[in-house]
Design a protein that fits this description.
The chain is built from 12 helices and 12 strands. It is an alpha/beta fold. It has 2 domains: about 5-40 and about 290-430, Methioning gamme-lyase, C-terminal domain (Aspartate Aminotransferase, domain 1), CATH 3.90.1150; about 45-285, Type I PLP-dependent aspartate aminotransferase-like (Major domain) (Aspartate Aminotransferase, domain 2, 3-Layer(aba) Sandwich). Strand 11 and strand 12 form a beta hairpin. The longest helix has about 30 residues, at about 280-310. Bound molecules: pyridoxal-5'-phosphate. Pyridoxal-5'-phosphate binds next to helix 5.
Length: about 425
């Protein structure tokens, strides 16, 4: 067995191999910590499945209205157990994370209400949902307004601004756990707990929703364990384990979930309708795999940080910093490096490895984005992927990897591409411990 040779056969030079191997050795203790959380979360998911008595009959296909879809109902029960909530809505009719968030927001607000974000402007695709960017059918058109305050430059919550921002009309507070494409850091569960405590001290009855995208199974606790009324996410990210072909989830109080179900299907129909089609098995299996996949992706992100920090680039979080999602951000301050990096990651893809990514305008996003994505599930960013909006400060976001060796190859290929394109100096790789 010769690892270096098989890497060489795939285009990885000896110097890149050696450099990455050394960086990997430096973070082995970090990997051990990740594996402990993986173990905990694997048991949490398994135990939920056992308690809900998931059976072979849950895996069959249903069609049409989907009345008495036992597999679907049982899966929603499993999600509710995993997130420790009263109820959950887990559907392949929810087409993505933005859709899940839209259903949760429309369902849980009424004309005259205000939505408040205490952690800055939400994820790009929500700007049209909220009506911050003019869009037909936005919440703004229905008389639901939006306001926000930023976090402080030092990364702490701006409690004064939050106090000012929550008024008598504020009915829903949206907390985005992951940083998305913003420059702030991703929130830890401890920070979310503190923030929710403060919000409740100002307005106890407000609905608190957490956009949980990319955060699932990164810590032992989830936002609903520390006071959130609901968590919302995408099944083509962490909780789908790379296996769910489509879908989204909303887990929370009975009231929040029913409000969301009224929007997804119809008032009166709620959760009773909506066939799982042939997807039950994939959604169960995906959830089962999710803790393992999240851990693999995190290890890939840590290796990436270890490699690029050593080369002198800003990496957030750093290789030894606590991680709160699967995303690693490397800032290049140069569009050429962003494009070359993404092209390298693409060369490591399982599907479409021969394609050369180009920057393109993307629906829901303001700037052109270059994306490296060669996935079994189209657009699945729990699979190895990288993307960067072409705007200052030219940060590339790297995420995913269903297995650690795949994520590692992505890291190595990105570095190889930067070298091959002459964008970083070979000498940087030499004589390192
Ligand atoms: C991915 C993501 C979304 C939107 O999900 P899509 O599936 O791309 O619609 C929303 N919020 C955050 C933080 C995300 O990472």
């Amino acid at each position: 067995m010769d690892l270096e040779n098989i890497y060489a056969s795939m285009g990885i030079s000896g110097e890149v191999y050696e450099f990455c191997k050394k960086r990997e050795a430096h973070v082995s203790e970090r990997f051990r910590e990740i594996d402990e959380i993986f173990e905990y979360n694997q048991l949490k998911v398994l135990s939920a499945m056992q308690q809900s008595r998931v059976s072979e009959a849950c895996l069959v296909e249903t069609t049409g209205y989907g009345y008495n879809d036992m597999g679907r109902d049982r899966l929603e029960e499993v999600y509710a157990r995993v997130f420790h909530t009263e109820d959950a809505l887990v559907r392949s009719q929810i087409v993505c994370g933005t859709h899940a968030l839209t259903v949760a927001l429309f369902g849980n607000t009424r004309p005259g209400d205000e939505i408040f974000s205490p952690v800055g402007m939400p994820y790009d695709t929500l700007l049209e949902v909220l009506g911050v960017r003019e869009a037909q059918g936005s919440l703004k058109e229905y008389g639901v307004s939006f306001s926000y305050c930023d976090m402080k430059p030092d990364g702490s919550f701006d409690y004064e601004a939050i106090r000012r921002g929550i008024n008598e009309r504020t009915s829903l507070v949206e907390i985005q756990r992951s940083r998305g494409y913003s420059q702030r850091h991703t929130l830890s569960i401890a920070e979310i707990r503190e923030l929710i405590g403060f919000i409740r001290s100002i307005k106890p009855e407000v609905t608190i929703m957490v956009d949980n995208c990319y955060g699932e199974f990164i810590e032992e606790l989830e936002p609903t364990d520390v006071g959130a009324d609901m968590v919302v996410g995408s099944l083509i990210k962490n909780p789908g384990g790379g296996i769910a072909p489509v879908g989204g989830y909303i887990a929370g109080t009975e009231k929040c979930v029913k409000n969301a179900a009224a929007r997804l299907t119809a008032p009166g129909l709620y959760k009773e309708l909506g066939p799982s089609l042939g997807n039950n098995r994939l959604l169960y299996q995906g959830l089962f795999m999710a803790p393992s996949v999240a851990a693999s992706a995190e290890k890939g992100a840590i290796l990436l940080a270890a490699v690029y920090k050593e080369l002198g680039f800003e990496c957030a979080p750093g290789p030894f910093e606590k991680r709160d999602d699967i995303i690693e951000a490397v800032t290049f301050h140069d569009p050429k490096l962003v494009m070359s990096f993404c092209r390298g990651v693409q060369r490591a893809a399982s599907v479409d490895s021969f394609i050369r990514p180009e920057p393109t305008p993307t629906p829901g996003y303001e700037h052109e984005i270059i994306m490296a994505a060669g996935c079994f599930i189209s657009g699945s960013s729990i699979e190895l992927s990288a993307d960067g909006p072409l705007r200052e400060p030219y940060t590339v976001y790297f995420q995913g990897g269903l297995t650690y060796p795949h994520a590692k190859l992505g890291v190595m290929m990105s570095l190889q591409q930067l070298l091959d394109d002459g964008l970083i100096d070979r000498s940087l790789l030499l004589n390192r411990d």
